[in-house]
Amino acid sequence: MKIALVHDYLKEYGGAERVLQALHEIWPEAPIYTSFYTKGSSAYLAFKDSAIIESWFGKLPFCDRLISPFRFLLPLVWQSFNFAKYDLVISSASWAITKGFAQRETKEICYCHTPPRYLYGYETSRNWKKHWYIRLYALIVNHFMRIYDFKQAQKVTYFIANSSEVKDRIKKFYQRDSIVINPPVDLPKFQIKSSKNKSYFLTGGRLEAAKNFDLIIKACNKLKVPLKIYGTGTQESYLRSIAGSTIEFLGRVDDEGKFELMTNCQAFIVMAKDEDFGITPVEAMAAGKPVIAYRGGGYLESVMEGKTGEFFNEIKTESLIEVLKKFKPEKYKPQDCQAQAHKFSKERFKKEIKDFVEKYARVTRS
């Protein structure tokens, strides 16, 4: 089959880009269509040796800054591509309504990370509701973008959701059925020796408001327990300003450094509301460590309560404090955590995707 891959944009390397990379490893000859890419970015560097086809929007100056306020142009962006020569389009969709490319003999599989969070009332990385004039603009534009998003979703041949949480959203907002194939998680390919110092808790990733790192910091401040935080983001300055003496910021770390931190912590803490899936908890379990997570979203699919971690029930500092007070790291076996993490391996993802394509999307052109 002639296959094309379509992705929102190539700017930062995160969970969605891990999925795209795994798809491209399965079909290395498939070109990658995208609204724009940022040269030198982590996402671009991951695919720089691939055939990347950028839309006209990517030729505009400051396109990475314009994509959000000018999102009403997305229909024109995707209409500028012609996929008629392909048997199958696999779209990797979340923010940019990257779906609806099936036509005539061309089928489409949409791997949906989530319906766009900003369109359906879910928290986003930036607090765009802060100013009244932005709220008014979004009220008008997002109304029409929801109509467009629904229309494009009806054109998709098959939906794959990255979690049961997202499967429910696809049903709710698009009235479409889907199957769940959890995203791939890069399990460590190197051995890291565990140190004797396991006194600290760990959290990290993109330091954005929706992840509620501030509440994690406040809980550890109150209990005066050590907390290490890796990563960068728009909330970093604010988070540093509220951190007490037991909080340490590590900045950007590479994969080996991240897994070393995970291997030597007591537990990894996550607190995002309505998490689509959540890859970092699986990475922590791959390092043999339990996870302390908010009881909601994708965390419910990856963490086994009492065996590979614990849940707290509310997005509140007090709720996390209750769990931290009772937490006993010796209760959790590294082999149990690692066995759970291996359920989400890249090899598993590739096999499930290939099996799905073989079963449902095989195309024979007349």
Summary, kept brief:
The protein is α/β, with parallel strands linked by helices and 366 residues long. Helix content is 37%, strand content 14%.
Written description of the protein model:
This protein has 14 helices and 13 strands. The chain is of the alpha/beta class. The mean pLDDT is 92.
The overall strand count is: 13
Main sheet attributes: strand count, strand direction, barrel closure: 7 strands, parallel
By helix and strand content, what is the structural category? alpha/beta
Give the oligomer, counting copies of the same chain as homo and different chains as hetero: single chain
Topology order in helix (H) and strand (E) letters: EHEHEHHEEHEHEEHEHEHEHEHEHHH
Topology:
Elements: E1 3-7, H1 15-26, E2 32-34, H2 42-47, E3 52-54, H3 63-66, H4 74-79, E4 88-93, E5 107-112, H5 132-155, E6 158-161, H6 164-174, E7 179-180, E8 201-204, H7 213-223, E9 227-230, H8 236-242, E10 247-251, H9 255-263, E11 268-270, H10 280-286, E12 291-294, H11 299-302, E13 309-312, H12 317-326, H13 334-341, H14 346-360
Helix pairs in contact: 7-12, 10-13
Label this structure with key terms.
37% helix, 13 strands, globular, single chain, 366 residues, three-stranded parallel beta sheet, alpha/beta, seven-stranded parallel beta sheet
